[in-house]
Amino acid sequence: MSETIFTRIINREIPADVVYEDELCLAFRDINPQAPVHILIIPKKAMPQLNDADDADRELLGHLMLAANKVAARAGVADGFRLVLNNGAAAGQEVFHMHFHLLAGRPFTWPPG
User: Fold this and answer.
1) Under 8 Å CB-to-CB from 103, ≥6 apart: which residues?
2) Is the distance from CB of 104 to CB of 81 less than 8 angstroms?
3) Catalytic one among 38, 97, 99, 101?
4) Is 38 assigned a catalytic role?
5) Whole-prediction pTM value?
6) Which one, of 86, 99, 92, 87, lies nearest residue 27 by Cα?
7) pLDDT in tens, 33-89
8) On the CB side of 88, how many CA atoms lie within 13 Å of its CA?
9) How far apart are CA 44 and CA 12, in angstroms?
10) Distance of CA 46 to the CA centre of its chain
11) Which domains are seen in the chain, by residue range?
12) Is the omega angle on the peptide bond into residue 33 within 30 degrees of 0, that is, cis?
């Protein structure tokens, strides 16, 4: 996988407003927020898209979901947030390092746009 802006954030080559970090993932505020709370949760392992994951990534994927709970709690939005993962350009993925968007702080509609 080629280096992305997220790889550079993980390596601390680019500053970010980090709100959570552990051995497997990093969470930071989105620089172009789409909600009052908009935090990106990324694995430290290079994985361009979710469809690049395999059975060996099962624990990492579960870990990211549990990290999202921790991030939401720290942000004070554990009682209501949306977790979004765009897989591929057709779904709106712009940075090809798999990541979740944790969105909260405003009402959301269904279905999403």
Assistant:
1) 34, 35, 37, 38, 81, 82, 83, 84
2) yes
3) 99
4) no
5) 0.95
6) 99
7) 999 999 999 999 999 999 999 999 999 999 999 999 999 999 999 999 999 999 999
8) 4
9) 12
10) 13
11) 5-104 (3.30.428.10)
12) no
